[in-house]
Amino acid sequence: MQYELRYQVIEPKRQTYQNVIDRFGDQPASRYLEATLDVEPRENFHYRPTWDQHRELYDADYTALKLTDPYSYTDPRQFYYTPYVTNRANLHDEFTKQMAYLEERELLAKLPTAWRTVLTTAILPLRHYESGAQMVSVGGARFAYGTSLEQCCTYAAFDRIGNAQMLSRVGIALGSGTGDLLQVAKREWLDSEHLQPLRRFTEEAMVTPDWAEGLVAVDLVDSLVYPVLYRELDEIALTSGAGAYSLFTQYLHTWFKDQRKWLDALIKAWAADEEHGAENREHLSRIVATWNPLAHEAATELARVVDHQLPDAGTVAALARTTAAAEQRWAQVTGGAA
């Protein structure tokens, strides 16, 4: 008996899920769109929050910044669970290799005294800032209206606690395998005068009722601190015998560039929204006017401490350049109102 094998192509009844078909028709769609569009419930809630009877469990009014259609915004990175986890696992592996290299050759222990002081008094305490920023992102993950927004906040929250853990690991390595320097960094965060503006900023951002305002406020600090401490100071480290500093800050610099991708796109979406754009630009201008002086004060105190230990670093001057660039960016977003 002979058998003849044949291929039979079975055409699918539809190319994608109904949530995508409702918007774009029946055509092949990315996994990101299938896992994102119109996933968050909008109706048929059983009860309103006992702590806020005027709003639904998922409600656009948890922020003054609104989108006519929350799904008009999508993550430029197209992150849903799998690509996000894969991307971050790769970054973590790279960081682990760099830390193993530093620890094997005791490069952190060989840092010049001034650089060790900078790490202890200015860099390691920032793990507490990252933890506070994580809570702000968690607020966005809970209260943002629309899956495309809340999942970006969720991933940012995971990233923030990861950043805090990275800094903790650097502190443990710098402390020869002990948590002694992390305790010192915590006391710096709680008591040192130069960190109190940033600590106050972080705590006030954490309790801001408007989740989007808290997110933008933290971004104002990020836009100053990350470029100055993890890019400008990194270049100084390479030429002043502190290559170890440059190695571990690569991760943080890379992460900040990735964070900018989705957050810049979201801010532009708010500002350009066809129905709420004008009001959104006014709100963004108010947020920048309220929080930017506090962010600048917090970053300036950090920069002064670094320059006190490393007079040739020019961190305050680098902060001035970064501030000018950030203000120009906001002026473009808000039409010159910020």
Automatic annotation (TrEMBL):
Reaction equation(s) it catalyzes: propane + NADH + O2 + H(+) = propan-2-ol + NAD(+) + H2O
Assigned keywords, A-Z: Monooxygenase, Oxidoreductase
GO molecular function, one term: oxidoreductase activity, acting on paired donors, with incorporation or reduction of molecular oxygen, NAD(P)H as one donor, and incorporation of one atom of oxygen
Transmembrane as UniProt keyword: no
Pfam families, per database record: Phenol_Hydrox
Enzyme Commission code: 1.14.13.227
Catalytic EC class: oxidoreductase
Protein name: propane 2-monooxygenase
Natural source organism: Amycolatopsis carbonis
